[in-house]
Input
Amino acid sequence: MRLSTLISFVTPHNGCGLHVTAHNGRTACALVTGLLTAGVLSAAVDPGLLALVPATTQLISGVHVDQSRVSPFGQFVISQIQTHPGDLQKLIDATGFDPRNDVTEVLMAASGPSVNQGGLVLARGSFDPVKVEASATAKGATIQNYLGTDVIIGANPKGADANAAHPGAVAFLDNTLAVAGNLDAVKSVIANRPNTTQLPQSVLAQVNALSAVNDAWFVSLVPGTTLLPQMAGGKPNAPENSNDPQSAALQAIVQSSGGVHFGDRISISFLAVTRSEKDAQSLADVVRFISSMVQMKRQENPQIGILATAFDGMNLTTSGNTMALGISISEQSFEQLAQANGAKKATAIRKQ
Output
């Protein structure tokens, strides 16, 4: 695994992460990116949002947004947005919707088998559906009423299939609740809203526990190579007998969860359930190898040096078929990683 991949994994970046639209992800992506970059402060998960998550969900994650501005990193992100507002400012101007102030919580869910399939974004906040619809239709979107709820269907870009099976869509279930995803997924949420979704009790227990102590969190029932394909050398479906120890160790992960807590130090936790005790030990060995590789290269650039310091104090344990990892980075160092990663991405975009 390249160290640049590791740096990208542990630092914030632009983009939705979860692919929720087929052809015109721009509007939904701008919305989601704004929601995620607002910052977070831990609280219990919103039960109203959780009730809308499909029972077939394989990956669920959440971000608390409402009190983000009190965290140092939240203030940093807001300052960056104000300096480089980009698409977010266009969204605010067109719709009156400012995710820095108007959103309290976001949930993301994917049904798999790939985390890029069946993706949904659910947001609690304060919305003006009429104004958003007017802005969307002015840019070529269409409105379809489904079971009494208006669904905004994004226009396909020039050259795209006009009969796309899974166009991107956004719907406001009321003035406080928005859902974005492909059209079929959004319609499914609308149709099932009267019925409370019941995720497996084991998943609900993890969601409630993690959301109560973290600012951002996730629970995954997909293999490690699907969750972290970049760390598996871009091989999300690596065979179980892979000769690559890293891919094999990630493939052995059958469930995982984790969270991030923002403060003067940013704490990152990760828990993996593997197929066996031996697999848990192998996964821990991979983490130790990555740690040693980072530490050996700590003098090469400041970003690697920051990661090396974090790995110096990592807490890595195994128990039976589980592996737990905890690391922390000072908030100022995390800002440096975010700035460096953002600058690298901006340079890459300019070269395109």
Summary: The two ends are 24 Å apart (CA to CA).
